[in-house]
Amino acid sequence: MKSIIFTVMLIITTTASISQVNCYIYPEGSPERQACELCDEAIKHPQGSKTSQLLFDKAIAVGPKFAWAYYEKSVPYFKRGFLLEGLEILNEAIQLKPLDYLCYRAYWYWQYRNYKLCIQDLETYYNMPKAFIQFTPGGEKDMRIILGLAYARTGDYKKGIKTIKDCLKTYDSEDDFGFADYHSLGMLYVKDKQYDNAINALEKQLLINKDIADTYYYLGLAHLKKNNKTKALNYFQKGFKKLKDEGRYRNTNAGFYVYPSDFEEVLITLKSD
Amino acid sequence: MLRNNYYTYLIVTLLVFGCQNLKKVQKDYENQIGDTPFDKTRDNPNFKFCDSTKVLHKRAYIRYSGGEKALEEELIKKYNFQPNYRTFSGYFIIHFAVNCNNKTGRFRMEILDTNFRKTNCPEGLESQILSLAKSLENWHHAFYRGKDYDGYRFINIKMKNGKIVKS
Q: Among candidates A141, A73, A69, which has minimal Cα distance to A103?
């Protein structure tokens, strides 16, 4: 029951900032109410279409302090590779409501592989007294996991591990873990050469979700480093098979990806031994 | 005289502020953000959309043979590092279209520094990166809801000290 409440709370808190805003919370006739209603109209049109963008502009003109309009207007720019235009618009939303929109900018910094700026935003965010739990836009990862992965991408695996562990500690139970959280932790343990801890975390991952091909790859690597070649080979074979499975879990925002050629390489080496 | 000056001032002020407001509110948009009209000064006239009225903006549907890693490996393999490139660290964001025959065109490129500000890069690097992007041939056009489509995509090439950084 507790975990259900927790999950519901998470959904409410994380979607509050970036999902559709309830326009009725603003007084009738106020600039925010008018802007909000225009945004409601805009999102009925295809994202990135001229009609919707013009409606967002109209919303911004009547309610320049209504942050959601800037946020919604920025989204198609980020998705389509127009980073600078997206940032210019989103920055207005962040000025107005940093607590709500800073993580979104961090997410796009992460997506465009600028880990330094991503870390900068997320550190600023988590230092805010009212920071709440936020997730990636797809909802699959806590932004604190992204912060951990971003540290790892800059080469600081230990800080990455600590950040992910600290994040997971705040959950009441494993029921609240994401589908790839133990994978993220285990992967960083492998990169930090802590192979026993890696095996421990990755085996836990298999109990939560055994459908990520990369989990088997990292389990294979950890066992290989511990000289358990039979186990390593077994995991690499399982992972390679999983990679071809259309129904596998595609661990978006993994931070580090394993490709078919990575499996082929280790399998060839092991089989030739 | 004073009165004339006053009117001139009033008209100029109204025009200046009026234009600023207009600029802020009314912006010229293409039908979709990212639509790239043909520009005869830089676009290949032989590149044509199969149906220019339905060009998708769904990047995930346009794939490269062997996936993103194969694309990256091809870029790294073809890239010809020069010592004067060493001063550059940043990003090349390249937008382009893949038509339903897997041909590419309408290339546009932005060069950003490590703080995501517009920047320039050493001579030769910009044209090399653009040529590299144009040389990629193993694209698979968008197949969406049972139909073939033209579509837009972008790639982001990250560089550190003149070398391509693997993702």
A: A141
